[in-house]
Design a protein that fits this description.
74 residues; 4 helices; mainly alpha; 8% strand; two-stranded antiparallel ribbon
C-alpha cells in the first residue's frame, strides 16, 4: 500500500490518553500535520511521532524541512 493509504489505517489506543495528559504533544502533532500536509501517528506510549513516506528521498526532504523550519530532531 502507498504510505498515505497505510497511515489512515494505523491506530494507537494510547494516543488520546497521551494527548490529554500532555496537550503539547497533540499540539506538535497538529503542527506537523499542517506543516507537511500528512497524517502523523504516535509510536508506542508517546516517545515518538511519526509519518510514513513511499521513498527515502521524500522522507529525507521532509526531515530536512522540519529540521530547518521547526527545529525538531528528526
Amino acid at each position: 500500500l502507498p504510505a498515505e493509504e497505510l497511515l489512515v489505517r494505523l491506530a494507537n489506543d494510547l494516543e488520546q490518553a497521551a494527548f490529554t495528559i500532555e496537550p503539547r504533544l497533540d499540539g506538535l502533532r497538529t503542527e506537523l500535520e499542517a506543516f507537511l500536509g500528512r497524517i502523523f501517528r504516535m509510536s508506542g506510549s508517546g516517545s515518538t511521532l511519526f509519518t510514513l513516506f513511499d521513498t527515502m528521498a521524500a522522507a529525507s526532504a521532509a526531515a530536512a524541512t522540519v529540521r530547518a523550519a521547526i527545529g525538531l530532531r528528526v
